[in-house]
Specification:
Its EC number is 1.16.3.2. The chain is mainly α. It has helices at 2-6, 13-42, 46-72, 92-119, 123-152, 160-171. It binds fe (ii) ion (FE2) (2 copies).
């Protein structure tokens, strides 16, 4: 039965599996940003919260894009489970330390998908994944910019936190 199914798709089982993993990673990223947005919101950083709510939606789009690609290619897209995500953060800055680390991890995961595409001569999926390569370049840059602002604006000065909230929100 499995072999029969495979005749209707050019995706190998390995590629289908790694794409489903990437879908889950994007879905997790969406939930992580949502929790960060909520934390910012309840701590008074309303502008940055808005930015990360949008970021959460973008990650949801990234998730759906892979998810639909799998089905479009005749594969089986698996709805990812929703794990617990970090809800509390030590500081405003910690949110962005974690955000950058998450984005770097996503970039590495995307590179793995592409490496597998190359190993299996799956040019269609490699071509599809290139959109994510460009997207990650932007996402990493934005997360780094946020951390840069923490260096430029003194968080501990009277209006420092407010200035940071306004400036970080402008990145997106
Ligand atoms: Fe993403
Ligand atoms: Fe991202």
């Amino acid at each position: 039965m499995k072999d029969l199914l495979r005749t209707s798709t050019s995706l190998s089982e390995g590629i289908e599996q790694i794409l489903n993993l990437q879908a889950k990673i994007e879905s997790d990223a969406s939930n992580k940003y949502l929790a960060m947005a909520a934390w910012l919101d309840r701590n008074g950083f309303v502008n940055t919260a808005e930015y990360l709510y949008k970021q959460a939606e973008e990650e949801r789009e990234h998730f759906l894009k892979v998810f639909k690609y799998i089905t479009d290619m005749g594969g089986i897209a698996i709805t990812p489970s929703v794990p617990e995500v970090q809800q509390e953060f030590a500081s405003f800055r910690e949110v962005f330390d974690i955000a950058l680390q998450n984005e770097i991890a996503v970039t590495k995961a995307i590179n793995k998908v592409i490496a597998k595409c190359r190993a299996e001569n799956d040019y269609a999926t490699e071509d599809f994944m290139m959109w994510y390569v460009a997207e990650q370049r932007e996402e990493e840059k934005n997360a780094r910019r946020a951390l840069e602002l923490f260096e430029l604006i003194n968080e501990n000065e009277a209006t420092g936190k407010f200035a940071l909230d306004v400036q970080i929100a402008k990145i997106g």
